[in-house]
Amino acid sequence: MTQSDFGGPLTPHKIDEMGGMTVGLHPGMHSPLHVLLWFTALFYSSKAFWRLPCRGRSGLARMDPLISPGTPSYHVHSIHGSSGFTMSADAGTLKQAPCTSCAVEQDKSAYWTPALYFMHENNDTELVDSVGGMLVYYLLYGDNVTAFPEGFRMIAGDPFQRDFQWPIPDPPQSEWAGSDISQAALRQKAVGFNCLNYANPPEPSLGRHFLPNKTFIDQHCADGLRLEIMFPSCWNGHAADSVDHKSHLAYPSLVMDGVCPPGFEARVVSMFYETIWDTTAFAAQAGTFVLSNGDPTGFGYHGDFMNGWESGVLEKAVAQCTNPSGMVEDCPLFDLQAESKQKLCTVEIPAELKNEDVHHWNKALPHDLAVQYGPAYASPIVFYTNPTPSVTPSGCQSPSISSLSPHKRSGPWKHRHGAYKH
After folding, report:
1. Domain count along the chain
2. Tens of pLDDT, residues 170-224
3. DSSP of 84-133, one letter per residue?
4. How do 21-23 and 13-15 pair as beta strands?
5. What pTM was estimated for this model as a whole?
6. Which residues constitute the domain of residue 296?
7. Does the N-terminal peptide bond of residue 375 adopt cis geometry, omega within 30 degrees of 0?
8. Residue 385 covered by a domain
9. CA nearest 86: which of 314, 349, 267, 316?
10. According to a count of CB atoms within 10 Å of the terminal CB, is the N or C end of the chain lower?
11. Cβ–Cβ < 8 Å for 339, 98
12. Domain for residue 314, yes or no?
């Protein structure tokens, strides 16, 4: 694919005095015409694909069975899919659940990402409303694409990332070489923040790899912000999972498509998440947007997936659902449910989290999680333990993590080692 496949050439970015970034791209999407243009621009080279709507959010809680099995996660996730999602969920519990918040009833998979919050000037945080749930794209890029095996699980992105070491904007894909096609670079290029303004042509998907600052969002993103993440599709051909939930996979050389690296020649379905957040609700307020994992940069955006498809259905869909329209309605294999039914499907929140108000939090993110601005890698995890803030949305940097010992307090900060590894 060429750069034009992602919606056209990118214009130069600008880094402002506060360390935020702005970009002069064509914003907008989601009118019928914009949807058609975006599909054509992004997916025309794929043999086939379908877009799975998950109009209901099945849960909003500190739950993550991949990274924190059996215990609360350190940050909030927006959860979609099977009502069998628990802190200890596996493929069996997902499949046995009575419902899914997605459109295809045979799909009891779980899909989850960090939620987006708004941090006011006084450091109180408030959940940003999502719009339309999640859209999950199943793309059949490459040759001999196979369905996800039973028990398949994966993670894309790194919640502790706070820096980007490659050119901004991305050079044309025809020029990618060397470090541009390293797995480290491809992993970060798989994250996107799309500024929506339906009055204008759409921005390219994955065209911006950082969370724009609030001034830019207020001025240009009249219809909100779409968060995007692409999962790796090059597979080692045998493992359904790995210790870090990443090492059994790799990205092709162009993130979505391209050449797979040695040892990962097998191709599984290419998966792409998008979620829209109503940032316009905070247009008149002072503060900053921040991901629930304490990330105001966007470089730490990530997504998780756990396969819960009914046995044999995804395999048949990969072979038979070859209509290029992208509509799940065009695949007769799928048993579809109405949007109203999707929205009725919810997970059971565990007792230790039921009384936790993840919609509002005083002086920090939920669970007293502090914001880490980077550019240093944001591990160990930092929790806020003092009513007097030492990091504010207008500040450029958090205190140096390396100068503070884990499990010890230094002023208002308390540190804990996270489950993710650098």
Report:
1. 1
2. 999 999 999 999 999 999 999 999 999 999 999 999 999 999 999 999 999 999 9
3. T--TT--HHHHHTSS-BSSSBTTB--EEEEE-EEEEETTS-EEEPPEEEE
4. antiparallel
5. 0.84
6. 3-380
7. yes
8. no
9. 349
10. C
11. no
12. yes
